[in-house]
Specification:
The structure holds two protein chains of two kinds. Chain A is globular, with a radius of gyration of 18 Å. Chain A is mainly alpha-helical. Chain B has one domain. In chain B, 67% of the residues lie in helices and 2% in strands. Chain B has a two-stranded antiparallel ribbon. In chain B, helix 4 runs antiparallel to helix 5 and helix 7 packs across helix 8. The chains are: A mainly alpha, B mainly alpha.
């Protein structure tokens, strides 16, 4: 149980996907202009993350490993994730139109997020058990959500600041991310797995 | 934009490197631009990997563009891209294992690079073989140039070396090899490109919205 908690903290803070592994930047930069978008993305993302790590774990351990198809993992994982997202999109539209109206747009965006593929790949490479994979997926999702929300709240304030012209938009956002990343260096060594 | 240089292949190449540079201008596929650029060697190899995947994917998608039903085109493109990525991965794992260990994860993630899929969708699916080939070459080169530029600065400032050979004798700024340094480097280089654009070419300097 303790190990799981450590894994959760490690995945969300110490090895935060955005600030220490530099993944998911496209979405990170794209959805943090407004707090609403960032919050919607966080919720959708975390749930997709957990479910897709479960699905890909099952596929990897019950289908690919017995038949020695590990080299196909990139292909299989992207199909699983994209298929799942597409299915969730269709189902949500029918079952919960209200929720779809709010979060549907983020679902479509998620497919282009590299974290979604990175988590199953890391799960497979480090040989996590089913529960560990779930926890790792959850931790990564929460970490990403944290990053989105921190960034969105800063960028909302930044709208009012007088930034030099060449740095407006993305460049200043990158420098900001660098500053936050510097703060996250403080978490390294918090937990040794 | 993508139909502009239909006749001139050189124009397509130039467009990829300068006009629509994937990293600095349209700001797509930023993750690897920060992630693997802490040393020049990694940046170069990653750039070459993307270069090949982009070119090969463009060529094969352009070849099969008339046989794929429009409804399923995106999944089909992703599968084609994933195939090439797997091939490049296996190649690199066999021939450059130490580097593969460092950048392997990011190399596998080329599948999810927006730039490759977006070129496939915007260009290769609508154009003949040769223009698609040159568009792929140009975009791949543009990406390569951007990665090399970023990693050049980061390795020079962060470790005082280039390709592992010591160049600067003074104490290096460790910050630039750290994750944070990557963000700073990309931010400043982007600002610099924008500044050049505004100062010398009268552009607006706004690089995309960030996707």
């Amino acid at each position: 149980m303790e190990k799981l908690l450590e894994l959760l903290v490690a995945a969300s803070l110490v090895n935060n996907f955005v600030f220490t592994r530099y993944l998911g930047l496209c979405i990170f930069m794209g959805t943090t202009k407004k707090m609403d978008t960032a919050a919607g993305m966080s919720i959708t993302f975390t749930s997709v993350m957990v479910i897709s790590s479960a699905l890909s774990w099952v596929a990897y351990h019950f289908v690919m490993a017995p038949y020695h198809l590990e080299f196909l993992k990139i292909l299989v994982f992207i199909v699983i994730v994209a298929g799942f997202v597409q299915a969730a999109d269709t189902m949500m539209r029918k079952v919960a139109p209200g929720l779809y109206y709010k979060l549907g747009i983020y679902l479509a965006l998620i497919i282009t997020n590299c974290i979604i593929l990175a988590v199953p790949l890391i799960n497979a490479d480090s040989g996590y058990s089913f529960i560990q994979s779930l926890v790792f997926g959850l931790g990564s999702g929460l970490g990403f959500a944290l990053a989105l929300i921190i960034m969105a709240s800063i960028r909302e304030k930044l709208e009012l600041a007088d930034v030099p012209k060449p740095f407006r938009g993305l460049p200043i956002a990158f420098i900001l991310t660098g500053l936050i990343a510097l703060a996250f260096v403080g978490f390294s060594g918090l937990i040794t797995l | 934009m993508s139909t502009a240089g239909k006749t001139s292949y050189i124009g397509l190449l130039k467009n990829g490197i300068f006009g629509e540079n994937p990293v600095f201008r349209i700001a797509l596929s930023l993750c690897p631009a920060v992630a693997v650029t802490s040393s020049l060697k990694n940046g170069l190899l990653m750039g070459i990997g993307v270069f090949f995947v982009q070119t090969l994917a463009n060529v094969s998608i352009s070849l099969v563009r008339n046989f794929i039903h429009e409804r399923i085109r995106l999944p089909a493109y992703i599968l084609i891209i994933a195939t090439w990525v797997t091939a490049i991965n296996l190649l690199l794992e066999a021939f450059a294992y130490p580097v593969y260990k460092q950048i392997g994860l990011y190399l596998q993630l080329i599948v999810a690079f927006a730039i490759i899929l977006s070129r496939a969708e915007l260009f290769a699916s609508k154009n003949k073989l040769l223009p698609s080939l040159f568009d792929g070459l140009g975009m791949g080169l543009g990406f390569l140039v951007a990665l090399v530029a970023i990693s050049f600065f980061r390795e020079l400032l962060g470790s005082g070396t280039l390709f592992g050979f010591p160049v600067v004798s003074s104490k290096p700024v460790l910050l630039f090899v750290l994750p944070a340094g990557g963000f700073f480097a990309v931010g400043f280089l982007m600002g610099f490109f924008n500044w050049i654009d505004i100062r010398f070419f009268g552009g607006h300097g706004a690089s995309g919205g960030g996707h």
